[in-house]
Design goal:
By secondary structure, this protein is α/β, with parallel strands linked by helices. The protein folds into two domains: 68-82 and 89-292, Rossmann fold, CATH 3.40.50.300; 353-454, no CATH class. It has helices spanning 7-10, 49-53, 120-127, 151-160, 178-188, 197-207, 224-236, 254-271, 282-288, 306-311, 316-323, 327-330, 367-371, 403-406, and strands spanning 68-82, 90-105, 109-113, 135-140, 144-145, 161-164, 242-246, 274-278, 291-296, 299-305, 377-380, 383-385, 433-436, 441-446, 449-454. Helix 8 links the parallel strand 7 and strand 8. The chain is globular, with a radius of gyration of 24 Å. The protein binds adenosine-5'-triphosphate, iron/sulfur cluster and magnesium ion.
Length: 458
């Protein structure tokens, strides 16, 4: 690895001042210990993402009043499983995404995390309509349902919804120059007159911190971080309202990750772009996303604002995910002392467990968990959880908090005496009332503050 800093990777480019440096050596490898971050040129331990990011921008903040640019409701994607042989019959379905609801605020960022195979990429590919959903709706910009528009109707919408891919090597055509890669969407969508495409490409390269004179070079002449910037320039070319970023920095070294995240933060602020940010690194998600949804086996099991999710998660799976973060990162994600070990393998999405899908690995599972699927109920101003025994680690209740909400007895059988409270599930967004699991009451926000309102079953 080179000790020399490449101007555009080692420096922190701002959106406007991105080309202030001299042209870099395009073949130089990204520099993990560049001199503007701690540990530069020394034998100090490799940086964590949080340490590298600390020299860039502060974490993105939540705007609770932002209207949603995307509202996803009850989205499903079942891939057919075919038998072998001459006549290939459908013998089952991979339930990759199974009834998820969430919203992405305009100009904001929602993180999507979970183990491999839980359905994150499938969700991203549904929103960009690389897949046609089995059912559900994806309301974009307050009107169009992306789930039902035809391919022809989708074409103009592709301008508004762009994708950044994980692998900066395979996502760029090695036979095309950077100018062709970034310029093609401009030509296809007639964004600028033909004679101005090159000028616009150069502007875009400048915006993402690359040398605009390098438009005629090929992807293999750039480092991984630089290639990811090319992918970002291509996505930015159409001035999207929403970007689906699927593990956009997972393939990069830590300090380069921080620089690319800082670039995305700049672009988000400058162009008011909303992000669905898919990642498995909880430190990266924490920095970029003020709100995070946790997926398990095709379902969203918890969604919350950053502070709540990292400091007081209520779902055993979220608690286990956070417990699994190595010690060195514990401070970055809240420094909890209680741990929950995640054991066993993720079950097959072709034949998932009944009731709660996490029950085969959950240390708190009881009878009701196998019988009844827990609803994703709102339990705080911006906090939802799907667990019959939702609670802080070390303080999970011994009775199912959902029983009175759903009109069930403690074992999950219908209880004719109970009056179900449906308000606990507000759909993709957040309501002004929620279920206070400690008090067993619906609680809400009023101009005078927060007050208890309704007791279930009363
Ligand atoms: N085209 C497809 N046909 C059949 N099954 C698929 C297809 N694409 C994904 N799957 C399955 O759907 C499930 C979810 O896959 P997906 O790629 O969305 O997971 P992921 O959360 O992105 O995982 P990773 O973290 O590994 O990227 C997996 O079981 C996967 O095998
Ligand atoms: S519903 Fe039951 S099995 Fe599922 S996470 Fe909660 S306690 Fe565990
Ligand atoms: Mg994926």
């Amino acid at each position: 690895m080179s000790d020399a800093k490449t101007p555009h990777e080692g420096a922190e480019p701002s959106v406007r001042g991105a080309t202030a440096g001299t042209p870099q050596d395009p073949t130089a490898e990204p520099d993990l210990h560049s001199s503007d971050v701690p540990g530069a040129g020394t034998d100090e331990p490799v940086l964590t993402f949080e340490e590298a990011a600390a020299h860039g921008h502060t974490a993105t903040v939540l705007d609770p009043d932002a209207t949603p640019v995307l509202e996803v409701e009850n989205l499903r994607m079942y891939f057919p499983v075919k038998s072998s042989g001459l006549i290939r019959r459908t013998v089952g379905h991979v339930q990759a995404v199974d009834g998820i609801s969430f919203q992405v605020p305009r100009g904001g960022a929602l993180g999507l995390v979970g183990e491999s195979g839980c359905g994150k990429s499938t969700t991203g590919r549904l929103i960009t309509r690389l897949y046609d959903p089995t059912s559900g709706s994806m309301r974009f910009d307050g009107e169009t349902d992306l789930a039902t528009v035809s391919r022809r109707q989708m074409k103009p919408l592709r301008r508004d919804i762009q994708m950044i891919f994980q692998d900066p090597y395979s996502s760029l055509n090695p036979r095309h120059t950077v100018g062709t890669i970034v310029g093609t969407p401009l030509r296809v969508h007639n964004m600028v007159p033909k004679n101005q495409v090159l000028k616009r490409v150069q502007e875009l390269l400048e915006v993402v911190g690359l040398n605009p004179e390098h438009y005629n070079r090929y992807p293999n002449e750039f480092s991984g971080g630089q290639r990811q910037r090319i992918g970002i320039a291509r996505a930015l070319a159409l001035q999207p309202k929403l970007m689906v970023a699927d593990e956009p920095v997972s393939a990069l070294d830590v300090s380069i990750q921080a620089q690319v995240i800082n670039l995305l933060q700049d672009l988000q602020a400058e162009f008011n772009i909303a992000f669905l940010f898919i990642a498995h690194d909880l430190a990266v998600v924490r920095h970029f996303c003020p709100e995070i949804a946790v997926m398990y086996l095709g379902k969203i099991v918890e969604v919350a604002d950053r502070e709540t999710l990292y400091q007081r998660p209520f779902h055993p799976y979220t608690q286990a995910l956070l417990s699994a973060v190595p010690d060195v990162k514990q401070a970055a994600i809240g420094g909890r002392r209680e741990r929950l070990r995640l054991e066993g393998d993720v079950p097959s999405p072709i034949n998932p467990p009944s009731g709660c899908r996490f029950r085969t690995r959950c240390p708190f599972a009881q009878e009701i968990c196998a019988k009844v699927e827990p609803p994703l109920m709102q339990v705080g101003p911006r906090h939802k959880v799907a667990c019959h025994f939702a609670g802080e680690l070390g303080d999970h209740p011994d009775h199912p908090v959902t029983a009175p909400l759903l009109g069930l007895d403690q074992a999950g059988s219908p209880d004719p005496a109970a009056t179900p409270l449906a308000q606990a599930d507000p759909g993709p967004g957040f309501a002004d009332t929620w279920f206070d699991i400690k008090r067993g009451q619906m609680t809400g926000r009023t101009s005078a503050g927060t007050v208890g309102t309704t007791t279930p079953g009363s």
